[in-house]
Each structure stands twice: as structure tokens, then as C-alpha cells.
Write a structure and sequence with these properties.
Layout: H1 2-7, H2 11-31, H3 38-57, E1 60-63, E2 75-81, E3 91-96, E4 98-101, E5 104-107, E6 109-114
Length: 117
């Protein structure tokens, strides 16, 4: 029990940090559309990479959902779209990335799932 408590001690901190990371990514993505902000975008992209590397080194693993079959244990479906070129039930878009800490889900990925009609 003690070993598991130590392993997941930072879970609460990560849960509070993830919305900040989401906002950082949204701002960075918005700035990428402004050619005059290239230098700033490059600098903040480097900081974003460093933060991501740090979180992974601390054991937080991002869940990349796009192209994967929908899994209710990892994904939260926010809607459906139809893409005849994709398999039914596959994740088409990831609106918010999910994360795991070891084998524990910290936050599910918010996704759009393919529904072939």
C-alpha cells in the first residue's frame, strides 16, 4: 500500500495541472495562425515540449486516441461524425487529450467517434 501511495502521490497535482496545460496548448495553437508571432510561437513550443517531457518523466502518459477504437475505459465520447473511409467506432478527433499515471486513468480523452450509417 505504501509503495502504491508513493507512486500515485502526485495524481492530485497532475489533475490540477492538466487544465493549465490545456489552456497553454489552446493559446499556442491560436498563435500559430499569426505569422508575425513566429518567434514567440517557437519559444513557447520549446517550453511546451519541455513541460511534456517533464510530465512523462514523472510518469504521466498522454493517451493518443485518434485512429484508435473507442474504449470507454480511456475515452469520453462527446459526439459522433461519419467518415465512410474509417472503421465504425474509431476515434476521429480528440478534443481534449487524456492522461494515465501508470495504470490509473487521470483523465479520459474527450473524443468524436465515427458512426458509419
Amino acid at each position: 500500500e505504501k509503495e502504491e501511495a508513493i507512486r500515485f502521490a502526485n495524481a492530485g497535482l497532475f489533475e490540477k495541472l492538466l487544465p493549465i496545460l490545456d489552456n497553454f496548448e489552446l493559446g499556442l495553437e491560436a498563435a500559430r495562425g499569426d505569422a508575425s508571432a513566429k518567434g514567440i510561437v517557437d519559444g513557447f513550443s520549446m517550453v511546451h515540449r519541455q513541460l511534456g517531457d517533464f510530465l512523462v518523466a514523472c510518469g504521466l502518459q498522454p493517451i493518443d486516441a485518434v485512429g484508435q477504437p473507442f474504449d470507454p475505459k480511456l475515452h469520453e465520447a462527446l459526439g459522433h461524425e461519419t467518415d465512410a473511409n474509417q472503421t465504425d467506432g474509431v476515434v476521429l478527433k480528440q478534443l481534449r487529450r487524456g492522461f494515465r499515471l501508470a495504470d490509473r486513468l487521470i483523465r479520459p480523452s474527450s473524443v468524436i467517434v465515427n458512426k458509419v450509417v
